[in-house]
Amino acid sequence: QPLVVYFPEYKKDEVLEILSLDCPSEYSKDFYHTFLTSLWNVMNSISKDIRELRHIRDLLFPIYCEPIKSGQATEKETWKLWRHIEPYYKNILPRLYIRESTRYVWTKYRFMNY
Description:
Number of strands: 0
Mean pLDDT: 85
């Protein structure tokens, strides 16, 4: 008989700490943490799986940073960044429900609709 070991679910702070380990060097830890917190707040009712959250983070963080790279916002202007990323969250949520969030599907959808 295999030995079954129970592991409790990660708590919010633990998930954010794990995800923040991959902070890109060109952004401050506070800025990255703000993004991760918004990601958690939007996604936690659907998934708390670290691998899935990491995947969604990798898809959305470059989009979140677009206004900064184009000079339309700074790291401190979180409301502008939220307004920019919000439609992407709205579009990915239904896809995540049915687990249709591969990089190929997301990239194809993004360029067709935005």
